[in-house]
Amino acid sequence: MSLLNSALRRLFDLLLYPFQSLPAAVGLLVVSVLAAMGMLWVFKRTSNQEKLEAVKRQIHAGIFEIRLFNDSFRQIWRAQMSILRSNLTYLRLSLVPMLFVLPPLALVVAQLQFHYAYAAPAAGERTVLTATLAEDWQSAGAVPVSASGKPQATLELPAGVVAETPSLWTAGDREISWRLRIEQPGDHVIGIRLGEQRFDKQLRGSRELQRRSPVRPGRSWLDQFVYPAEAPLPAGSPLSAISIDLRPAEVALPGWTVREMAGVPAWMTVFLILSIVFAFALRKRFGVTF
User: Fold this and answer.
1) Which fold has domain 126-244?
2) Residue 157 burial (10 A CB sphere; 0-12, 13-18, 19+)
3) Which residues, 6 or more positions from 37, have their beta carbon under 8 angstroms from its beta carbon?
4) Paired strand residues for 131
5) For residue 193, which phi and psi values (nearest 5 degrees)?
6) Is the pLDDT of residue 112 over 70?
7) Which long-range contacts (CB under 8 A, 24 or more apart) does 233-239 make?
């Protein structure tokens, strides 16, 4: 997973480079068109278009039969059962192309999330940096601890980032946290030192479009799939993750500013709506029925 994410990071950094200085909506518009075209291409080549078209005709025929024989309970019941069977067949026929569309789409969404979901920290903004220790962090003996059992971790901060609080140890969650203040926006690398080991966390503050990582994950496959924006922590690390709080980004559209709603990032709302619109608009050109 690490190698795949590394390749995808380079690919998406390159693809989105032309949109660095443009509003987020412009890049999302282009990405949505490309995503719609890609999904239509895959759907056409992995689905049985003839059977899908035949099933749609059966559904339309059932609806027409209900309207034509609306005074006959027997005819209406038979038409409804026919529509139900046809719908189940339609879902079965659509499942196969979805199995080909969804995995690559999930990888695309995972990469776009870290380009469009988070806002750049502003000067004077405060954030919280948290290092989560692995469950077996004590067994290796690589992390020095105080007499009270608190792990001794120190920050190594770049110019422009200041720690406002000492480390806070939450034993139940195995977390060490600091409150930081961003004095100078820019691309920073924050170091956390545990004994002789140092672990870095990126903090990108440029206002241009760029990859921003709220979490540097551990080595597990799932963690790397969910947080692909930064290289994982090294094998055998006493840390399982390093996270930093980032504000959700907004997407400005003409007459409407899209914000995060119910945990759904603003960019994803725009991307899903535009992708669906373009998929329907382009389906005849691609010769696709769905």
Assistant:
1) Immunoglobulin-like (2.60.40)
2) middle
3) 278, 282, 286
4) 176, 242
5) -105, 125
6) yes
7) 233/199, 236/140, 237/134, 237/197, 237/199, 238/133, 238/134, 238/137, 238/140, 238/142, 238/143, 238/194, 238/197, 239/131, 239/132, 239/133, 239/134, 239/137, 239/192, 239/194, 239/199
Q: Quote the pLDDT of residue 223.
A: 92
pTM for the model stands at 0.82
Name the β-bridge partners of 118: 248
Nearest to 237 by CA among 221, 216, 222: 216
* Average pLDDT for 39-55: 92
State whether the Cα torsion 120-254-11-108 is positive or negative: positive
The letter for the amino acid at 93 is L
Q: Can you give the residue ranges of every domain in the chain? A: 2-117+259-282, 126-244
Q: How many CA atoms lie within 13 A of 104 on its CB side?
A: 11
Indicate if the pLDDT at residue 34 is higher than 70. yes
Euclidean distance between CA atoms 128 and 161, whole angstroms: 12
**What average pLDDT does this structure show over 241-267?**
93
